[in-house]
Amino acid sequence: ATFLPEEQAVLFHHVVAQLLFVTTRARRDIQTTVAFLTTRVKRPDKDDWGKLKRVLKYLKGSRRLKLSLSVDNLSILKWWVDASHAVHKDCKSHTSMGMTLGKGMPLTMSKKQKINGKSSTESELIAVDDALPQILWTRYFLECQGYEVKHNIIYQDNKSAILLEMNGKGSSSRRTKHIKVRYFFVKDKVDNKEVEIAHCLTEEMWADLMTKPRQGKGYKQFRAVVMNCPVEYSDQDELLHEAKYDAQAKREGHIKTSTKHDTKMTTEQAKGKSVDTVHRRGHPPQ
Questions:
Q1: Spatial CA neighbour of 124 closest among 133, 135, 113, 134
Q2: Distance of CA 197 to the CA centre of its chain
Q3: Strands 94-100 and 76-84, sheet pairing
């Protein structure tokens, strides 16, 4: 690989850091790409530079895309946790997580796992362990605010991992008996009814957007769920919508201003009429 010159490598690091700031606050749709780029900041090459330019080009073409959130029920938390097995150059896996209370995902995660897993089942178990602190903290936080959390559901698409999380070593076999005890911490939380584990289809594993690159229609469908935007989002359509909204807001503002002006004039006229009446009765003005 042809590595970037030092000055260009510093610029690469700087831009990736800026993208990391953007993606953790608003642009969940580029979180996977940025997560992978952060693993390349030490010695970026020309291929990495090309990937960075492609991300910036995508952002330029969708700069009006907004993260829109809505809440259906604060007593039901839904989490999607997924893992992509051995996708990094050192054969480590990648964790993804997303949470929703209705539409759009206010909390997401996309990060490289710190240890190697021998199978996709083990990678899924590690992914849940990575996401569990955030899952539990969110429940505790909402309860401290006075909300009752009735269901805290973790959706996964790997049935073997679900059995291990629900039954612990009881569902362990020759292929999984080497897994360390720390990764069965989730079973204790399942037994305490602090979390629930449920199966979902791979086609509905929305956190998959944060584990591997998707293209075309599949990417748009997953982005629509995570960002709560139209599947066929267009920046041009969003621009026209904003222009229409601004025009309507200006008209409403003009109407309110006119109403306020008319009210003021009516008050002054009434006041003047009252003064004239007092003068006619022979009383001096106050």
A1: 113
A2: 21
A3: antiparallel
CB contact set of 230 (below 8 Å; sequence gap of 6+): 224
Task: State the pTM of this model.
Answer: 0.81
Task: Centre a 10 Å sphere on the Cβ of residue 61 and count the other Cβ atoms it contains.
Answer: 12
DSSP codes, 31-79:
HHHHHHHHTTSSS-BHHHHHHHHHHHHHHHHTTT-----EES-TTEEEE
Neighbours of 148 (CB within 10 A): 8
Cross-strand pairs, 102:
71
Q: Bridge partners of 45? A: 3
Model confidence over 241-277: pLDDT tens digits?
Answer: 888 888 888 888 765 555 555 555 454 554 554 444 4
**Two tokens at 132?**
């569990």
Q: Give residue-wise pLDDT tens across range 175-205.
A: 677 787 778 899 999 999 999 999 999 999 9
Return the residue matching tokens 């004239």: 276
Tokens linked to 113: 């796992």
Q: Which DSSP helix (H) or strand (E) runs through 107? A: strand 107-112
C-alpha of 74 from chain center: 17
Q: What is the DSSP-derived secondary structure letter of residue 231?
A: T
Q: In what order do the strands lie in the sheet with 151-156?
A: 107-112, 94-100, 76-84, 151-156, 196-199
